Structures are given as structure tokens and as C-alpha cells.
Amino acid sequence: MAASANISTLSSSSALSKPMSKSPSFCLNQPQKTLFSLFPKTLPKPSSFPFKPVFHRQKHQFIVSSKNPISDFFTTNETDPEESFLPSFSDDDDKPREECGVVGIFGDPEASRLCYLALHALQHRGQEGAGIVAVNNNVLQSITGVGLVSDVFNESKLSQLPGEMAIGHVRYSTAGSSMLKNVQPFVAGYRFGSVGVAHNGNLVNYRALRHMLEDNGSIFNTSSDTEVVLHLIAISKARPFFLRIVDACEKLEGAYSMVFLTEDKLVAVRDPHGFRPLVMGRRSNGAVVFASETCALDLIEATYEREVNPGEVLVVGKKDGVQSLCLLPHPEPKQCIFEHIYFALPNSVVFGRSVYESRHAFGEILATVAPVDCDVVIAVPDSGVVAALGYAAKAGVPFQQGLIRSHYVGRTFIEPSQKIRDFGVKLKLSPVRGVLEGKRVVVVDDSIVRGTTSSKIVRLIKEAGAKEVHMRIASPPIIASCYYGVDTPSSEELISNRMSVEEIQEFIGCDSLAFLPFDSLKNMLAADSQTFCYACFSGKYPVMPREIKVKKVGDFLDDGLNGPMDSIDGGWVKGPRNIEIEKEIDPMYQQSKI
């Protein structure tokens, strides 16, 4: 795959605001104030931060030369999309998709190279674009490109990113032929210097924030909600810099795990609900590493220390080492359960739990609550493998590779003129006739979204000679869209929202079908069950989308295409109906719909 790259070097003579106070760790204990309050009709006047910070200081020696870039990517204005609701999913790739992965490294002379390797370990979280920003001699230097990490970066490009601090990002998106301008990390200049940011998640009040910023004179160049964060930081009058981040985050609603880079500091922040993962580790030379998953730490030989806690800001600097503060009093954590079901690699530890052990337990539960007479257990690779191992072990039936996945299928391919049925699935999955022929087969998959791929897989296995095909799904039925950084179809497209289990079984053509029971999932999680978000299974949202339409992926729209945004492939889905909010935001819309 050819990669399109963008290389920029931005410098600033401005210094960042004065260094952080040496007072001790700080938590804001004002329960009446919450990060997720409704945003006012006009932007509040930025003011100095009203709380007294107390720091937890961990002293470490770092030698860092830093410099700051100024980006002029705030150049063009765009209108928001209104009525484009085109499906984003391919029939042959019917899975939820994690939007992206982030990495931050401080205090290593090969920061950009380590960042490159860590992004490679996080490639499963985003395959459409990658970028790295490094600091050298007070300049933030940025390279971003379209394609896989290995497509975007080579020895020549990495040599252009010297320095001991770096942040990186891998991104997933489906819209548009070119999306280079939306590839993160973003770098922006403001009056005190420059800042780079990489963001994993989705802001559910993005449109309201953007409209208000535009009303106050802000100009946007991308459709990414991450750009909103940069604008909020720029207009804040809080000092020092990390308090600008706190000030900006007070206005955000939704999911965000972010890493920021300035000329002399690395900052990691996680939203108060902790929807998306973010972990901290340390290399043997003392370098601090932040990443979306622990698998990235493993590859660069960093030792996992802990998660970045929900609502926490971690500031890393040469002078004061690692400082921790509480962003805001945070409610009960609501961490994304799909990290354990599908997104994360099995060798990662996410939210303090082994992903491998979780998936193995899901399979064991399925074998207990939905047993069936069978001869062999197979998985839909790769995400169904561990659950299938758990099912086979509990059922006492051999696990075998009945489907072989090709890892070399690109986004486009040439189909012969004589149409081949289920061509897309056949390109990716090949049945092993010797395993399947004449057998009663249990097929374990992690989830069913629209059901289109499942029906093709069942047909593929039966065409290979299987006598019976029994589908076992290692998650509860998905009945609702995600608004917190996962690319899912609208609720109307979700098969479990439209059909009963019996109807789905008939639709996909299997001999029996069973999902992981929701109560069994919560029982397996035991005391931790209240700390997870189950909105996609229940339709109950920890943070209600407060807009008429909500972006399902933070930077899904207008990927570098020319023309008005309402002509772009739809990255908007309708939010849950809230009459009061609709009246507040758009009275004419409300009148037209009732």
C-alpha cells in the first residue's frame, strides 16, 4: 500500500507559561461540579483556575532538548453536515472498529523510533493513517501519512524526528479518498507557544462546541473533534499550560484519552468516566511511556506501572518528573467492555484485567449456558480464537483451525468479470475442508453487528461439507450505537435491535445460535462489573449524547475531499431523542419532526 505523507516543522520563539508550582498532588473535591454538565449557550469567559493544586511528585532525571512548532492548519472554515446518513460498513467487514491508538514517550534519545515501534504494536486499533510529532531544539516536528505505520515511516523520515520526546497516533476511518489533513497528531500554535495532541475517543458535544467557537471567531480546518480541544486550550486564560488542558476538559463531554506535547512537557489525560484505555510504563533508562495498550509497552521493553486513572492528568517534565493530579471529581468509571471482547490484543492488560483471560472465560461461559453436541470447535479468526479455546476446553471438544485468515488483503481488489458469490469473505477467510467435512461444527465469533458477514461465513462452512453449524457469540447482542469512539452502524442497522435470536438464526442460516448472556458477563466481572460501559448492549448511556445528531467517530468526516461537508459520506448518526435538547439547539427541527 502506498502511503501519502505530510512532513512539517514548526517553530516558535514564544515560551510556554511559567513552570508548574512546586506545591504538592491535586484533586478537585467539588462534587457539585461535573465535567459532563450541559455546555452553556455561550462560551464562558476563560478565567484563571479556581482551585489550589497539590502535586504527587516523582523525581526522575531527564535530559531533554525541546522546541515548539507552529501549525497554520487553522485555515479554512467548513459547514457542518446535516442530512447525510450513508452506511459506513462493508458487508464483508462487519465489525465494530476502534477509532485509534495513541502513544507518548518522554526522556529517551530515540523517542520517535520507539514511538514508531509502539504504533506498530497498536496497528490493530487503526490502519488508515499514522503520525508522529517529536520535539527537538524547541521545535515540534511532525510527520503524518495515509496508510499503515510501515507505509508512512521509513529510516529517512524517522531521522527527521530527533529528540527525547514524541507522541504518536494510528487512526481508523472509512470516508474519503484522501484523509491526510485529519491524520493526527495535530500541532497548533497559540500565543504562548505550540502544542501537539493525539486523541482516542469521541466528544458527544462536538457540534455544540464547534458552533460556539465559530460564533466567537474560531476557524476550523478539519472535521476532527480533536481540533475543538486545541481551540479551547488556545482561548483559555489559565496558567500554567496543564491548567489550560484542565480548563478545556471541563467543557468536554464524552470519551477522550489524550497525550499532549509541548516544548518541554508531555501530558496524558483521561476522561472522568475512563471510557477508552490509557496506560503508563517506564523503560530501564527512566523514560516514561504512555500507550493505549500494554502490548505497545512490551514491544519497546517498557515496564507496565499502572493505568492513567479516569479523570487524571499526568504531567511529565525534566525538572519535576511525573506529577499526577485529578482532573475533576469523577463519577463511577464506565470503561468500554468491547476492549475485552474485541478491540484489544489478547496479550494486553486493559483496565487492570488480562484480555486473554477475559475472552477465555467468555468461551467457557458459552459452553456452560449454551452446550450443543458437536465434533469440533473452530473460531472466526482472529478475535474469536481465545473464546473458542475457552469453549473447547470447557466442552471437552477439540479446537481446530477450520477457517484460515489471509492477512494480506487490502482495501481494494480486482474481482473477475464473472461474479464470485461472497467474494469479499472468501478473500479473507478460507475454510479447511479436512476439518469441517461431515462434522458438527461450533463456530465461535466475538460479536454480530449487522449479520451480513456471519451469514456468509455459515454458508462458506456448509459449502466445505459441514453437517451442522452452530454459532456461539462471545458477547451479548449489540442493540445500540456507540457514541464514545467506536465506529458502529446506526441502531436501525444493528441486527439484534431488529430481530430476535431465533430470527437472526434463520437469517444467517445456522443450525443454532447463542449469545453470551448479559447477566453472565456481569457475574464474570464480579465486583468490577459496575465499572464498565454496556451501552451497546443495553442502550443506557453513561453520558447522554446531547445533540440532534452525534458523530459516531471523532474524525470521521471530510477526509480531505473537496466540496461542501454535506456531500461527504455520512459520519453522523442520530442521537437518542431528547425533546428539550432538540428545542434548545434547533427549534425549527423540532417543529418539523412533531
From TrEMBL:
Co-factor requirement: [4Fe-4S] cluster
Entry annotated with the keyword ATP-binding: no
Pathway annotation: Purine metabolism; IMP biosynthesis via de novo pathway; N(1)-(5-phospho-D-ribosyl)glycinamide from 5-phospho-alpha-D-ribose 1-diphosphate: step 1/2
CDD domains: GPATase_N, PRTases_typeI
Pfam families for the chain: GATase_7, Pribosyltran
Gene3D superfamilies reported in the protein's UniProt record: 3.40.50.2020, Glutamine Phosphoribosylpyrophosphate, subunit 1, domain 1
Coiled-coil boundaries: none
Domain Glutamine amidotransferase type-2 as annotated: residue spans: 100-319
Family annotation (PROSITE patterns): GATASE_TYPE_2
Ranges where the record places region Disordered: 1-25
Xref: HAMAP family: PurF
Family: In the C-terminal section; belongs to the purine/pyrimidine phosphoribosyltransferase family.
Name of the protein in its database record: amidophosphoribosyltransferase
Protein source organism: Hibiscus sabdariffa
